[in-house]
Amino acid sequence: MKVAIIGATSGIAQEVAKLYARDGATLFLVARDAARLDPVAADLRVRGAALVETFVTDLRSNHAEVAARAGEGIDVVLIAHGTLPDQRAVDRDPEAQREAFELNATSVIALTAHFANLLESAKHGTIAVIGSVAGDRGRRSNYVYGAAKAAVHAYCEGIRNRLAESNVSIVLIKPGWVSTPMTAGIKQNPLFASATSVASGIQSAIARRRTTVYVPGYWRWLSLVVRMLPGPLVKF
Amino acid sequence: MAHESWGKWIRSTPARVLYEPRFDDLILPYGLGRSYGDVCLNNGHTLLDTSRMSHLLAFDDETGVLTCEAGATLDDILQVLVPRGWFLPVTPGTKFVTVGGCIANDVHGKNHHRAGTFGRHVLSFELLRSDGARIHCTPTDDLFRATVGGLGLTGLILTAQVQLRRIESPAIVEERIPFRSLAEFESLSAASDATHEYTVAWLDTFRTRGLFIRGNHASSPRQIRRPARRSRKLPMAPVAPFLTRATVRALNTAYFHGTSRAHPKPVHYDPFFYPLDAIANWNSVYGRRGFLQYQFVIPEEQGMQPVAEILGRLKRAGSSLTVIKKFGALQSPGMLSFPRLGTTVSMDFAAGDELLPLLDQCDALVEAAGGSVYPAKDARMAPERFRRFFPQWEDFRRHTDPQFSSSFWRRVMQ
Question: Can you tell me the ipTM of this complex?
Answer without folding.
Answer: 0.90
